[in-house]
Design a protein that fits this description.
By secondary structure, the protein is an alpha+beta fold. The protein folds into two domains: 146 residues, no CATH class; 56 residues, no CATH class. The protein has five helices and seven strands. Strand 3 and strand 4 form a beta hairpin. The longest helix has 24 residues.
């Protein structure tokens, strides 16, 4: 006797699809809130054109990262798309920075979304975005001085950047988590710096716009509060102050 196949009611199918979508969004959201990315969505991707044999003309050359960094509108569009998938409202976007898991300073792919993720600036676990910036500079220094291979540096930051930070810079206590207050830029000449605060964009115009972080290649002064992305649209950094 032929068994009658059970047909799932249509409303159950819709509910099942909705539940799966909700679980996926929750997984992405949890990853976006954490100081470590979800390895299934952000495994980290290296730029195949950057190799151990050419680091002297790529990552170890001054201005390299600024030269290959995607335009801000590109990275911001990716960030907003990823945050939308995570169910995070757009007004909370300033609480995140679109980070390259393998940084450009270590030969990371510039515009591959599998190497980009919305990193919380001030996560609950205290592993703030600036700590990863510090680690990236330390690893680049080791690679460019010959103390570490490029592949090992990339592997260290992808596998566990917390552990890599503790082994190299671990004498500094973690900062207590804090929330960035919602702010509005004074005018269109200001942008949000890496620490979440608004600063005046690079300019050659006279005036007191804050502490000068760097002089850009085009002669303008940068008032950024972090080194990441400084002078990225002005030819890179000519000198730090």
């Amino acid at each position: 006797m032929k068994k009658k196949r059970y047909a799932m009611p249509k409303r159950w199918k819709i509910a099942t699809v909705g539940l799966v979508s909700l679980l996926f969004a929750f997984q992405f959201c949890f990853a976006a809130q954490d100081s470590l990315p979800n390895p299934s969505t952000t495994p980290g991707v290296a730029d195949p054109t950057v190799t151990q044999s050419n680091i002297s003309t790529t990552i170890c050359r001054s201005g390299y990262a600024a030269a290959v960094r995607p335009p801000e509108e590109v990275s911001e569009a990716i960030k907003h798309r990823q945050l939308e998938k995570a169910g995070i409202p757009d007004e909370r976007s300033p609480e995140y920075e679109e980070d390259h898991l393998i940084p450009l300073e270590l030969g990371g792919a510039a515009a591959d979304e599998q190497n980009l993720w919305p990193q919380p600036r001030h996560p609950k676990d205290g592993w703030e975005a600036v700590r990863k910036d510090d680690l990236e500079r330390a690893l680049r220094a080791e690679v460019c001085s010959g103390k570490m291979s490029l592949a090992d540096a990339q592997r260290a930051i992808v596998s566990d950047w917390h552990g890599a930070w503790q082994r190299r810079i671990g004498d500094q206590p973690l900062r207590p988590p804090r929330r960035v207050a919602a702010m509005t830029a004074p005018n269109d000449n200001y942008y949000r710096s890496g620490d979440g605060s608004f600063v005046h964009g690079p300019t050659i115009a006279p005036g007191d716009f804050g502490k000068v972080m760097a002089i850009c290649a085009d002669g303008s002064r940068s008032f950024s509060h972090t080194r990441r992305g400084t002078c990225s649209h002005h030819g890179g950094v000519a000198s730090w102050r």
